[in-house]
Amino acid sequence: MRGAIGGPRLLLKRLREVMAEPVSAQERLDKTVVLIAANMVAEVCSVYVLRTDGTLELYATEGLNPNAVHLTTMRKGEGLVGLVAKEAEPVTTSDAQHHPLFAYKPETGEEIYNAFLGVPILRAGETLGVLVVQNKAQRAYSEEEIEALATVAMVLAEMIASGELQALARPGADLASRRALQLTGAPLSEGVGLGHVVLHEPRVVVKTLIADDVGRETDRLDNAIVGLRDAIDAMLDRGDLARATETLDVLEAYRMFAQDRGWITKMREVIATGVTAEAAVQRVQSDTRARMQRVADPILRERLYDLDDLANRLLRQLTGDGHHVPSESMPKDAVLVARSMGPAALLDYSRDNLRGLILEEGGPTSHVAIVARALGIPTVGEVEGITSLVEQGDAIIVDGSVGEVQVRPAPDVEHAYAEKVRFRAKRQEQYLALRHKPSRTRDGRDIKLYINAGLLVDLPHIKESGADGIGLFRTELQFMIASQFPRTGEQYALYKAVLEAAGDRPVTFRTLDIGGDKVLPYMHQIEEENPALGWRAIRLGLDRPGLMRSQLRALLQAAAGRELRVMFPMISASEEFDQARQVVEREITFLRRHGKPLPDLVKLGAMVEVPSLLFQLDEILQRTDFLSVGSNDLFQFLYAVDRGNARVAGRFDTLSPSVMRALKMIADKSNAAGVPVTLCGELASKPLEALALIGLGFRQLSMTPSAIGPVKAMLLEIDAAEIMELVDHHLKPEADRPLRLALREFAAERGIPL
Ligand code: PEP
Ligand code: MG
């Protein structure tokens, strides 16, 4: 480094000694700036720390007026120092006085300095402050000097992140590294949880930053890169896993990055400034993160994410940290934070300790979201950058009902949420009190309320909610969270457990509904232009009867000696139902021939979720023992609106005349034919929508377990006949108001809880 005394390595060595000294935080900072100034032959070295209010405060200086420390502040973007913080990139000039952004602060005595070099103090891509050196001479700083100062800034970043400097902050001027954040994402699982951050895959903490032996550290980096490449190649070669093409794409991208000369060269250059291989990876990773935050192009961002992930893997190679295993010593109020997570990984944690889950990725239909809902863990997904914005143990609040996350909340915010939790708990208690009350309207109509389920963890909900049974058992969930096809024996065990838990309450099993958005990671995926309209559900079942037969065999045996109710998903024509029934009959004949015990009664039903079936209701009603309306898919196909696409999913009202008339036709025809009909889509889970459904003539609703209480509380307060009249009236073309509005006003007037 030109002009430096002893070079950057000596400086880092000295800094290490200062960091270890038992002195106060201010003294440590003061010594640090003196060391840097001397080493870089600069007249000035100053440290500015970013505060929660977005201003930079001078925390230490060598060369400027010492009285300005903790007094001089500037906004992000103001002056050259503010520019460094705003851009999160080094800024250098040999003539600061004439720079258009030069901001004059008289108290610092700054005007006599000409050359300026400022680097951001970055940690995990976040700017925590700015480190500056200045010279009187109009000199230019070399690339090596900029590089060296950036490396020194890492040491300061660790010092700031450790919380040591917080003690120096005046009241109301907290450090930005600890600032409260309010983030939003997608609500994935209802409820509010207060607790402390547990990073699912904790960032690797690099303890030793400074190293003397450049050759040794470069060798360590090279070896780790070889190990990383081998690991990626091994993953790619595991052809037996029949991985989804997306996974392959990602791994291919990883392989490309792992061979990226630019990335590797950058890390080698950082090592040459006198740091460990780990510190070099971390530096380059931090720069990548900072860039990520500025890139708008989603594809490029995705690639940068990959690079970030890769850097983490490289760090693990270097430190020997294995994959994270949930520890026994988790806090009692853990809020898990992860970039993404598989359902099995979530099940590895003890439910008792989990207050919430926050993911950077993960949409409402992701498998981890399904499991989180089944476990009743408040969850928010699609929270950008959350894994790098929090530290292990930070206080955090997750509101899964609206999709909000509060990081390091202020006491009044925490208080408000704690109040919300208490309020919810009280409401839960009120719902619990309704558990044994018959679900009957004021005018004496019985409305059967069932739960939707799919996993063993759902079973306690039957009794807890006081439901009449399980209206939809999604058998594919067992397949979705497994790592390979569950054997017939495993399926049998689950179905038997379900029936036992239900006791004498009915359970309606749905045969495998895979394909579309329900992907099995281990099943070979065929490329389809439109998977939602493709080879899925009963279509796949009929074309590959082996899978369906193994499932039916498990179901028939599990229900030996009692009633078995089975329904088929995505039936689009009556012949499909006939074919499905034949598969069941063949299986019954097979089991009978082998002397196996059979159910006393087998009832078969069809799901109504493909619009074509609306025009074959007469035919289907002659053939089935019951119908079940899948309003999620029916709505998706009626309006041609992808149920998983947030941009369009909320575009049309689910209580619009088109949907309501379709549903009314199903209810009327089923009731007239004396064939029981249930509605098991999301519609039934919301009290206002459930009110509309009762008004249309539905007497059986199946919903997410937590909805049983609120829906029951609503129906106990209504006259079904009155609601039917109201709905009827508002479905006429001459109706003056949308049905949703009319029902809401009606409920408000009558004090019906929604
Ligand atoms: C539906 O489509 O409404 C339904 C209940 O099935 P799923 O949500 O599992 O597709
Ligand atoms: Mg469906």
TrEMBL record:
UniProt name for this protein: phosphoenolpyruvate--protein phosphotransferase
Reaction equations catalysed: L-histidyl-[protein] + phosphoenolpyruvate = N(pros)-phospho-L-histidyl-[protein] + pyruvate
Claim: GTP-binding is one of the keywords in the record: no
GO molecular function, one term: phosphoenolpyruvate-protein phosphotransferase activity
Cofactor(s) it depends on: Mg(2+)
Alphabetical keyword list: Cytoplasm, Kinase, Magnesium, Metal-binding, Phosphotransferase system, Sugar transport, Transferase, Transport
Family designation: Belongs to the PEP-utilizing enzyme family.
Domain GAF: 24-170
Catalytic class of the enzyme: transferase
Alphabetized InterPro entries for the sequence: GAF (IPR003018), GAF-like_dom_sf (IPR029016), PEP-util_enz_mobile_dom (IPR008279), PEP-utilizing_PTS_enzyme (IPR050499), PEP_util_C (IPR000121), PEP_util_CS (IPR023151), Phosphohistidine_dom_sf (IPR036637), PTS_EI-like (IPR006318)
Cell location: Cytoplasm
Organism: Labrys neptuniae
PROSITE patterns, A to Z: PEP_ENZYMES_2 (PS00742)
The enzyme's E.C. designation: 2.7.3.9
Record SMART domains: GAF
SUPFAM superfamilies named among the record's database cross-references: Enzyme I of the PEP:sugar phosphotransferase system HPr-binding (sub)domain, GAF domain-like, Phosphoenolpyruvate/pyruvate domain, Phosphohistidine domain
Gene3D superfamilies in the cross-refs: 3.30.450.40, Phosphoenolpyruvate-binding domains (3.20.20.60), Phosphohistidine domain (3.50.30.10), PtsI, HPr-binding domain (1.10.274.10)
